Automatic annotation (TrEMBL), chains A, B, C, D, E, F:
CDD domains xref list: HutP
Description of how the protein assembles with itself and partners: Homohexamer.
Pfam families documented for this protein: HutP
Keyword terms: Activator, Histidine metabolism, RNA-binding, Transcription, Transcription regulation
InterPro entries reported for this sequence: Regulatory_HutP, Regulatory_HutP_bacillales, Regulatory_HutP_sf
Gene field: hutP
Function: Antiterminator that binds to cis-acting regulatory sequences on the mRNA in the presence of histidine, thereby suppressing transcription termination and activating the hut operon for histidine utilization.
Source organism per UniProt: Priestia iocasae
Family according to the record: Belongs to the HutP family.
The protein's name: Hut operon positive regulatory protein
This protein's record includes keyword Mitochondrion: no
Amino acid sequence: MLEDVSRRIGRNAILLAFTNEEGELSLKKELAKLGWSYCQGKVGAMELQKIVAAIETSAKRQGIVNHDVYREMHALYHAILEAVHGITRGQVELGGLLRTAGLRFSIVRGKPYEKEAEGEWIAVALYGTIGAPVRGFEHEAIGLGINHI
Amino acid sequence: MLEDVSRRIGRNAILLAFTNEEGELSLKKELAKLGWSYCQGKVGAMELQKIVAAIETSAKRQGIVNHDVYREMHALYHAILEAVHGITRGQVELGGLLRTAGLRFSIVRGKPYEKEAEGEWIAVALYGTIGAPVRGFEHEAIGLGINHI
Amino acid sequence: MLEDVSRRIGRNAILLAFTNEEGELSLKKELAKLGWSYCQGKVGAMELQKIVAAIETSAKRQGIVNHDVYREMHALYHAILEAVHGITRGQVELGGLLRTAGLRFSIVRGKPYEKEAEGEWIAVALYGTIGAPVRGFEHEAIGLGINHI
Amino acid sequence: MLEDVSRRIGRNAILLAFTNEEGELSLKKELAKLGWSYCQGKVGAMELQKIVAAIETSAKRQGIVNHDVYREMHALYHAILEAVHGITRGQVELGGLLRTAGLRFSIVRGKPYEKEAEGEWIAVALYGTIGAPVRGFEHEAIGLGINHI
Amino acid sequence: MLEDVSRRIGRNAILLAFTNEEGELSLKKELAKLGWSYCQGKVGAMELQKIVAAIETSAKRQGIVNHDVYREMHALYHAILEAVHGITRGQVELGGLLRTAGLRFSIVRGKPYEKEAEGEWIAVALYGTIGAPVRGFEHEAIGLGINHI
Amino acid sequence: MLEDVSRRIGRNAILLAFTNEEGELSLKKELAKLGWSYCQGKVGAMELQKIVAAIETSAKRQGIVNHDVYREMHALYHAILEAVHGITRGQVELGGLLRTAGLRFSIVRGKPYEKEAEGEWIAVALYGTIGAPVRGFEHEAIGLGINHI
């Protein structure tokens, strides 16, 4: 793993997903200094496609990805799917198994490797709760997906 | 999700997995104040059973679980498996797919819910890298599993 | 496995799922003698969430679980999911793959282990048919999930 | 589901897997009367391939399948795999996830459908325990696979 | 693998899926000479059940399978499911993960093995694109399922 | 899907996997004309890691990927894994489920999209047989994985 903790793109994404627009200000400053882009958001749903759509929309609107270029959307999509695995832990399904999720998410795009040729990577982090559609009958869940972009 | 951030057992476990014995001292104090138990460790392997074994051994030695009681080991085991899903994101396999993982882990046991009847829960967090068995050809991965105990 | 066959909670659950309210009377007497609780039901659906809901509702109504306590519902939920794996054998999906299931189910709650510290466990058994949404184009399927509670 | 309970090939297979050579004598008589073939066996392993091999060997030796004909072995193999799903409930893996299984199995071959054109089918049932490689730290598991042959 | 390339049922099915009614005429002649049956079709959907249904309907209408016989439909269904795995590569889901597929399919039924006892087998091939519900944001995918019938 | 058939990277990869160094010469000429790179190979194994390794080694030796750059190896690795899904159709496992595979593979790297910004993509195709470790007890299988690189 990179010695330089500030370049740990996955860890950074998780810390952003733990907070909201007001939190982790020093981390955000560091990301800005590195020239990395990021965004944060929130989504609650019983349907995974709504979660995927919310993250994609946020990434496009905040300019993290170029929505005219399929290769960027392809990289993002697979990072989202991988993050979803951590949330669902076995069956990539929510409502169909009578459960729901309330999540904060973050997306970070940057260059985590020292070698220039490694180029840009994207990290998607999810943090929140998953459980029955009954208030309070839920526990925390987390997911992280990383892909080259 | 609990308003009281200090009782977010999953978030706490992740933060512990991000650090080592010397880190997150204020968090550790808070856990101690709550009367919760926790431990941290490190494991690198191409075989998932070694990762499972390392976490189980640590939990037993540090007294997080009572290793004479199957129900405690059963709760821990399923929390570990769920955390592994976040690391492997699709195929619960490492060496068999020619990849390896280097992980920090943490286990936290406590009462995340305000209602006394909810009793104790256990969280297992994993953080590190996964990738080819080639130095540096790896990216970060994270996993969290939570179970009632 | 326990020498004492009457305490085999999974086997008991399966035998109950094979029958209805009128069947397995001697087994039911034995369960009553042990102080274990159980219930039986029936559900047919192309949507897994309906099957999950039917089992949860039955367990709550018959008092097998305390529906005010999340840890009990969490234990039950995971036992149901595990039982569903035996029914679906690979893809945890019904209608989405154009198939339907007609099932009898049973839930048994008791102490299968001799050691007092092992406490209570819950078993969910499913038995019925799975197949195309065409009468008779189906074969049998079975599933069993067991969890500490 | 067939009205005629004696022709429920899956239920019959499960009942045989619950017992040994000495048990379920009246069921065995009924199977004989129907002209169906069956066998029973026992296998304990941390490796799934050993379980698959034990069932295949038993089926060949007892003449349940013709081991010179691939289509028969193909039908049996998929029935075994489906039964294994019920045992492993999510990850088709034992030792690689640090767990072991001790199982009784049965294979039944017969004609469960009234219509002659439906021909022969094969059912593989598994029943036993799965758990940590520690005596007693295990719970029951069951699996059933059915295929046309 | 069979030396006789013309009897490679899977390869033949793929080549048919690559083309339409007008293509692969020499292959079709060879299949006719062998006495094998086949059909081709096209389906686009965000729901897997529509894809399964389209293939089943085509197989029934073109007389590739006898739709009155469950064992034939069972063989076809599992061949379809196996082919779908190649298309979805991990999560057997389309719209639920916000993706869609546009596919050509083919079904071939014949005797790929020299030994008479091996009887008939069925191959289902899928070829097309999978991707976001945005024109052009898609890449190719392929799937093949083979079963004894 | 691209109107221009010659740019269908997945179809091209499959056709290459169907043949050997001597076959598909006109296709190879077209690929050369497009400036795309490709390679072919052969691997038989009961262990998936050997299959992954054989494909990676071939891609490195033939210069299809730059083995000093992790992002290229990462793109290739995920394309291989996706192709393996088509071969294994459900459980990403061979020997652990007592089966073996004999495969031809091909890798194609090129620009399948007309838009320059879409850049390079990589396709991995697998074609061969999967079955019991008994000569002739096997049927065909196919897999295709595509990724941006």
